[in-house]
Amino acid sequence: MRSITLMMGVVVLTGCASQPVPTLQPTEYSKVAGSWVAWNRCVSEGKVSPEIGALGLRYLKGDLAAYQYNQQLLDAAVTKASKDMPAADTSFCNNAAALVVQRKQQIDIHNTVVNQQQQELQNTLNNIPKPVYCNTVGGVTMCN
Questions:
Q1: Which residues, including other chains, have CB under 8 Å from residue 108's CB and lie 6 or more apart?
Q2: Looking at the record's lineage, which domain of life comes first (predicted)?
């Protein structure tokens, strides 16, 4: 009975400790590759600024890092998309750039709120009265 209880505890703890990382499905490789190639074309053709382009690539890489995927399949999909995709569509570039700027603004707002909360916490901690300790040695009392 004791071993069953111990085993159940291990199973429960293991199940809670490790969240499965989603796997990129075969149908999603072409979508990711298409976005990657289209965004790179937007940047290389000058339809978005280099700064927005770099942010967009960083966000694409960050989103992709949330998945398990086969690098060879992704490379093959990117190669195919590079060959099949014509020049970058201006409306795609504008819409994608707007999404990148929107995400950047959300991140900036979040960081501002976090910084304000940290400052408020620090101010609260600084305003907590410090304890005063007094020692009397002979006829002299010293307090800190």
A1: none
A2: Bacteria
